[in-house]
Amino acid sequence: MTHRVERVMIDRTQIQEMVDRLAAEINRDYEGQEIVVVGILKGSFIFMADLVRKLTVQTTIDFMSVSSYYGGTKTSGIVKIVKDLDVNINGKNVLIVEDIVDSGLTLLNLKDLLRTKDPASLRVCVAFDKPDRRKTEISADYVGMSIPDEFIVGYGLDYSGRYRNLPDVCILDPDGGKK
Ligand code: PRP
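# PRP complex -> structure
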């Protein structure tokens, strides 16, 4: 099956406005404090790079890479750490940065895991939220855009490893435009 980009869902101007708004909220909420921004690889890398450059609060960054396994019931999930944090987050204000929240299971398990390291606070900033896909109650503290359940790529999001480099968020046509 071939695929091609069908249309732009969120263009780069809208994305930059979204990032500006999120950064302003974060700068306001953490004024006078220091934060550790933790990007979850790989999808978050572009959003993270844009967001941290708009932060005026004292910031350090780190990355984690995780893979999720959904066994047992549909609401259970296990996050396996592929790359753990390098910094010690004990007593720190931690802000997880994700490109997308879908079922919410990755975030649920990730938050449980990071809580065991006793951060002073733990919040989540997500660029794109698909609430229709949620399998758990979790929600992010900072949400860029709530979007419908369509398969999107670009701005860090992939299909089979491709399209992460597209500057706009695009919808993929599963028929490759052959219909
Ligand atoms: C994506 C995304 C989140 C997760 C969200 O990562 O970056 O981590 O899926 O899905 P969920 O809410 O259903 O758990 P993915 O596993 O595709 O890896 P990637 O970031 O390397 O593309």
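# post-check
The radius of gyration is 16 Å.
The CA atoms of residues 44 and 99 lie 5 Å apart.
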